[in-house]
Amino acid sequence: MESRAPFALIGLFMTAAIAAMFAFVFWLHNSTGLQMRTAYRIQFENTVAGLVDGAPVLFNGLRIGEVTRLQLAPDDPGRVIATIAVVADAPIRLDTRVGLDFQGLTGVPVITLQGGAADAPRFPPEVQAPMLVADPQVGISTGQAAREALLRLDTILTENAGPLKTSIANITTFSTALARNSDRLDTIVAGLEKLTGGGAEQPVESYDLAAPQSAPEPKKSVEPFVVAEPTVPIAMDTQKILVRADTHTSPGFGKAQWAENTPKLLQAKIIQSFEDAGYLGFVAKPVEGDAPSRRVSIDVRGFEIVSERSEASIAFSARILSSKGRVVDARLFHATAPASATDVKLAVKGFDEAFGKVAGELVAWAGDVLRQH
């Protein structure tokens, strides 16, 4: 006797098994395993377009749960309440921040949670489904934000239409006046530059110091000697023409200056004075490495215009040193001449006259000492 297989029962069993397997996999995927769950509610002030039940919930980028329910707030239809289920040990605190993010090429929305302070309090355990409030800007799309910005701009323009129209009219009036006076614009700009101290930079004016003018003298025979570069105070080591007012000395005459720094200028002119007085070939600048020779050493004490007396003043001390460095003789020299503290040409003329006096005295005195020693 043949037995008949219960095909209907077998088919029903297989269908139930497959359905149970799919249900288990779905539950396992959406329940993050078999961990205990805690429910929270999240309040959104704006739209949550694309957010659906089962959407992931991430905490600092790690999945901790999913959305279980979405609904409109009963007391305010403009708000959306999302219920989420997350693992019970998720470190959600009172200051946890809520946001929306979009993943993948299709931009699937997910709810994001971000830490907060480690010492911030947690929600009381007796509170059922605690409420988290998302930032009001969460959910605003780029298009919506652009529309709101344009609306605000339109409101501003509407409210300020009168002042804007007046400003444009003023600009037109100014442009018309500027066009009428365009031929005088360069003159106006030059005047403003002059008033503010700007404009083209003035060219530098260089002046030389004149050596004493005297008739050529016959060559005098003395042992060779050198004129060292004079030493000067720091303030005088400059090309500027200095002016002293009371006890204060400062550069004067704008761009006018000496051809060289004061020490080099005096050295060159003193040597020229000796040469013109008949010592050509016996006087020179010291050369490093040469054997020691007799030396004329000069310490400058003054080389300036004294504004209160309107005179040029030159003062220095001079010493004659032997080839062994012994002081043979020494003397002070000082001379003045009328000059101007405001006219550079008159100032230079005063310096020339004062230098002629001290250079002549220096050459005469040094020549006598050098011939005797």
TrEMBL record:
SUPFAM superfamilies: XCC0632-like (SSF159594). Pfam families: ABC_trans_aux (PF03886), MlaD (PF02470). Residues 207-361 form the ABC-type transport auxiliary lipoprotein component domain. It comes from the Bacteria. Residues 40-116 form the Mce/MlaD domain. This is Mce/MlaD domain-containing protein.
